[in-house]
Amino acid sequence: MIRKTLSASLLAALFLATPAFAEETTVGRPIEGGSLHEGHLDMVVYYVPVDGGLLEVTATFAPKTGGDPLRVVMGLADDDSVAFSMPGHRGSLYAFSRSGDEVTVSTETDMRLRAEATIR
C-alpha cells in the first residue's frame, strides 16, 4: 500500500514538473507591439533596429496586483535566444528568440517550483 501511494505521488510530481507554455506572441516589424497576459505579470514588447544588425528589444512587465513596472532592454542578433524570470516572480519564465526580423516571446509556467513546494 505504501509503495502504491509513493509511486502515485512520484508520478504526480513528475507530471507537475513539466513546464507548460501558457502564451506566445511574435513581433515582425519595428515598433509593432506584442503582449502577454498569463501569470502575475502583464508584458508588452517591441523592438527597433540598431547598429550592427541587432534588434533592441524592450519588454515592460507590470504586476497585476499593482506596483512599479519592470523594464528589460536587450540586443538580439539573428538566431539569439534567452530565457529568464523576473525578480519576485520565479514561477514564470519568459523566453525571447529572434529569427530574421521576427522576435517571438513566450511565457512558460515552471511547475517544478510548485511540485517542490507540494512534496515538502
What does this structure look like?
The protein is α+β, with helices and mostly antiparallel strands and 120 residues long. It has one domain. The chain is 21% helix and 51% strand. The protein has helices at residues 2-17, 111-119; strands at 20-27, 34-36, 41-49, 55-63, 70-76, 81-86, 89-99, 102-109. A hairpin with a 6-residue loop joins strand 4 and strand 5 (70-76). The longest helix has 16 residues, at 2-17.
Biggest beta sheet attributes: 4 strands, antiparallel
Task: Describe the global form.
Answer: globular
Helix % is 10-25%
The fraction of residues in strands falls at over 45%
Tally of alpha and pi helices: 2
| Uncertain stretches | 3-18, 113-120
How many domains make up the coordinates? 1
Number of separate strands = 8
What structural class do helix, strand and pairing data support?
alpha+beta
Radius of gyration: 18 Å
| Strand order in the sheet with the most strands | 1-8-7-6
* Succession of helices and strands: HEEEEEEEEH
What's a concise summary of this model?
By secondary structure, this protein is an alpha+beta fold. Helices cover 21% and strands 51% of the residues.
